[in-house]
UniProtKB/TrEMBL annotation:
It comes from Plectonema radiosum NIES-515. This is Uncharacterized protein.
Length: 64
């Protein structure tokens, strides 16, 4: 089995890369017509629909 431990430098570079990606994503979702903003809105709508479904299923279930 190979050693998968990151060196401190690799960890710092990876952390920096993830921070950069996060900043790009945050900037992209601020633009209403971007693909990221549209995908986020769709995911939020789907989540809300699912949440409402389970809420209603619980609310109208026969709980004894």
């Amino acid at each position: 089995m190979s050693n998968t431990t990151l060196t401190p430098l690799q960890q710092a570079e990876l952390s920096s890369w993830f921070d950069q990606l996060e900043q790009q994503w945050l900037a992209a979702i601020q633009q209403p017509k971007s693909a990221e903003a549209i995908a986020l809105a769709e995911a939020e709508a789907a989540w809300e629909q699912e949440r409402q479904y389970y809420h209603d299923a619980y609310l109208y279930s026969d709980r004894c």
